[in-house]
Amino acid sequence: MIIATYNVNGVNGRLPVLLRWLAERQPNIVCLQELKAPDEKFPIQAIEAAGYGAIWHGQKSWNGVAILAKGAQPIETRRGLPGDLDDSHSRYIEAAVNGVLVGGLYLPNGNPRPGPKFEYKLRWFARLTELMAELYATKAPVVIAGDYNVMPTERDVYKPERWRDDALFAPEVRAAFVGLLAQGWTDALRKLHPDETIYTFFDYFRNAYARNAGLRIDHFLLNKPATKRLLRAEVDLAVRGWEKTSDHCPVWVELKD
Questions:
Q1: Considering the entire predicted model, what is its pTM?
Q2: Residue 32 in contact with residue 6, Cβ under 8 Å?
Q3: Binding-site residues from annotation for Mg(2+)
């Protein structure tokens, strides 16, 4: 079973890229972020024609998350992150697919720091931490994947000294990610590639992709039953070089059936 996460940076504008990648990689489950489309504009017909069922949580112009399942319909278990009834951002969705509980998230960017957006990011992270403590104890395999907007260590960012004041590299945010791992979650990419330089995002500016000047901000966290089934964890770097592509790369893990 291949489970992937992909910040598409606009599902309609990048639809040809998404469909091409789906055809080439053939993932069984996909978490999408930054749909940048309201619910009624989600391209469900094209997704279904590609062989995928889908659930989605859209928002006009911003945010938006979805879960796709090859040859199946995801069974939605949660829409939106609990803990704040006034939070209208579409950033979390969760479903059961073929015996695996999958959560797809798009954590707030938080810039500029300090400021209201950074405080919102910290509050959102705290709510996520509370939910994931609950999910970790699930006896079934649980995978929480998406754009976490955090580089956990200096090894996860090109030239870390340039990011000291950025919300994605703030000590409070990195500590929150460490807090998730302390619950028992496994960082799948680091589990299988402990010492490698791995990036999942490359800015459109300054020729970042060609220079391999990137960030690792798209993560897979697995509970113990999912970790026991972990076979591979990879980044589809070549997709970042396609025409009219997202600034993120698809990331995927393979679990034993």
A1: 0.98
A2: yes
A3: 7, 34, 147, 149, 247-248
